[in-house]
Amino acid sequence: MASVALPPAGLVLLWIRRGTKALWKLLGTIPILGIAVAHLFLFFGLRVELDGTGARPMFSFGSAESHIEQLEASRAALPAAAPAPSPPTVEAAPAVAASAPAAPPYWTAFRGPNRDGHYDETPILTAWPKRGLARLWKQPVGGGYASVVVAGGRVFTIEQRRDREVAAAYDVNSGRELWTNSWAANFRESMGGDGPRATPTWHEGMLYALGAEGELRCLEAATGKVVWSKNILADNGAANVTWAMSASPLIVDEKVIVQPGGPGGRSVVAYHKLTGAPVWKALDDKQAYTSPMLVTLGGRRQIVTVTASRVVGMAPEDGALLWEYPWVTEYDVNASQPIVTGPNRFFISAGYGHGAAVVELRPAANTFTARTVWQNMRMKNKFNPSVLHEGHIYGLDEGILACVDAGTGQQKWKGGRYGYGQLLLASGHLVVTTESGEAVLVKATPERHEELARFSAVEGKTWNVPALAGGLLFVRNTTEMACFRITPN
């Protein structure tokens, strides 16, 4: 009875009991420990998640129900925000109370303006205080692995709240929720985790949000009002992929580019950004988990993305295939963004024992041929894209930070275990968020691994890519979101 009511007491009583052999005490300990574990789950909200290896458990306390109740209570405690009119651009929206004047939009897309993880807006602090960066706010947030984008004094993201996906806008300086727009969806997956993955995109006063099950919405960034919506999977006869729709929408000219992975030439699709009308559809590839990028390679402006089987370059005008490079990874997990390393070269990497390569494009009539410059196992980015700085690639090689020469593939150093976190480049330094929620500053130098500072930013498993805008660092995971000042006052 003591073991059922209070397992530690039961263990003590068992082991002080006279006349019982040690073997029987050991055998009796096993069910009591099982009861103790059940207590942790039932009464203390023990949660077990898998880390980026897919094998090691990560433990935390607090049930999903208690977390969402805390989130709802925090939102209910805020006074209602005054409604904002629908403006042509979000910069013209009236600022809410306590907000500073809106800076020009900068971090409006996944991994920054060029989707390359570079922050060049303002210099950052490269000597952090011992207690960490100054925190402006921190609050509970819904589930999912999306990052945030920032424009017009507002922070935008997409979250899972109960059985609905929620696009939400927050005030930059206070974290106050300004509006939400939600729809019924509840993607669940035991290994990768639940909730939406794709980071929204802000463009000219509109927010383009894509849910895990294919719901694409164009929303007024000032109000959250729906301009148009459609489910890209249903619209293109596509089945969802194992770990759900993860590619952040890309705005190119008058088009929004998404990747449903439909058959019959409906793998990559362009819709009109203001009406949702189809513009073009292309390829037959099964999709993977990378976001399309607009880059210039070989002197040609083009869309580069990674499907389940290859890296491709496409003409923005009509989706025509310009070149391809085979890139097949176990379980079809191509989840790391390519990065441009030269006028006609790009870097691509994958985990699961695949490795990395630098590829060069050569003109061939109106298209290109792609050839391997180098390929090795020195950098294995799983879902954690690398960054380029002064001819060197910095990234997490299966959770360990490494530096590789972009020209030769030679590994310069490997050191610093940060788990399956994320990293950005700013002022010649790496801003790393670890898998356990720490923010770390590392000098971007090929000479050696040189960690300069670290502090706890959020608690719990942190796979979401951080964001930098207006001198602020935004960190979120499946339960918390926080904002820190990363530039001098």
List keywords for this structure.
Lipocalin, five-stranded mixed beta sheet, 489 residues, 40% strand, mainly beta, four-stranded antiparallel beta sheet, single chain, 35 strands, 5 helices
Task: Give an overview of the whole structure.
Helices cover 11% and strands 40% of the residues. The strands form nine sheets. Strands 3-29-30-31-32 form a five-stranded mixed beta sheet, with no helix packed on it. Strands 4-35-34-33 form a four-stranded antiparallel beta sheet. A four-stranded antiparallel beta sheet has the order 5-6-7-8, with no helix packed on it. Among the domains are: 2-44, no CATH class; 84-107 and 152-245 and 247-288, Beta Barrel (Lipocalin), CATH 2.40.128. A hairpin with a 4-residue loop joins strand 22 and strand 23. It is built from five helices and 35 strands. The longest helix has 23 residues, at 22-44. Helix 2 runs antiparallel to helix 3.
